[in-house]
Amino acid sequence: MTSGVFDVTIDAPVDRVWRWVGDLGKHAEWSPKTYTVEWIQGEPNAVGSRYRSVGWVPGDKAHVNEGEVVENHPQERFALRSRDKDGTYDNVFTLEPQGQATRVSFRLDFVSMKGMARLAVPMLFPLIGKKDIRTRMGLLKSKVEAPQP
């Protein structure tokens, strides 16, 4: 299984970081590429709620996933499982207080891949995906650390 873990320490308390991580609707604000989410069933961000997202992946600028919230432990852990024609993906955010700062760990697992994706993902993820996720985590840090109105 292809996967990656990405960490960033944000100079803000965990409750402030959670407002950005635990609300899937805000993820577009710290995405380096165009990303949208619409809720298709259930209460937004609640366990069992379903969503449809559209975002960039190599070769598809409007890639559609459908998924659900599988864990929501406020200020600790937010987990999503999504699916598309190529496979199943787990996205898990874990927050850990570090004094006045917060360590955010993001884990992406390509749980099961089909067809050409089974061959392409292990090659493209290290070259393109990891860079994009590091950029995304940097944008999260910038957004959370920005002066709050």
Provide a quick synopsis of the model.
26% of the residues lie in helices and 48% in strands. The protein has 149 residues and is α+β, with helices and mostly antiparallel strands.
Structural overview:
This protein is an alpha+beta fold. The protein has a domain at 2-29 and 70-145: 2-Layer Sandwich (Alpha-D-Glucose-1,6-Bisphosphate, Chain A, domain 4). Helix content is 26%, strand content 48%. The protein is built from 2 helices and 7 strands; from the N terminus they run βαββββββα. The chain has helices spanning 14-21, 115-145, and strands at 2-10, 35-41, 50-57, 60-73, 77-84, 87-98, 101-113. It has a 7-stranded antiparallel beta sheet with strand order 1-7-6-5-4-3-2, with helices on one face. The chain is globular, with a radius of gyration of 15 Å.
- Strand count: 7
Q: Which geometry do the CA atoms define?
A: globular
* Structural class estimated from helices and strands: alpha+beta
What CATH architecture of the domain at 2-29 and 70-145 would you give?
A: 2-Layer Sandwich
CATH superfamily of the domain at 2-29 and 70-145: START domain
From N to C, what is the helix and strand string? EHEEEEEEH
Main beta sheet: strand number and arrangement? 7 strands, antiparallel
Question: CATH first level of the domain at 2-29 and 70-145: which class?
Answer: Alpha Beta
For the largest beta sheet, what order do the strands appear in spatially?
Answer: 1-7-6-5-4-3-2
Task: Please count the helical segments.
Answer: 2
CATH topology title of the domain at 2-29 and 70-145 = Alpha-D-Glucose-1,6-Bisphosphate, Chain A, domain 4
Low-confidence stretches: none
Helix content: 25-40%
| Residues in β-strands, percent | over 45%
Mean pLDDT: 92
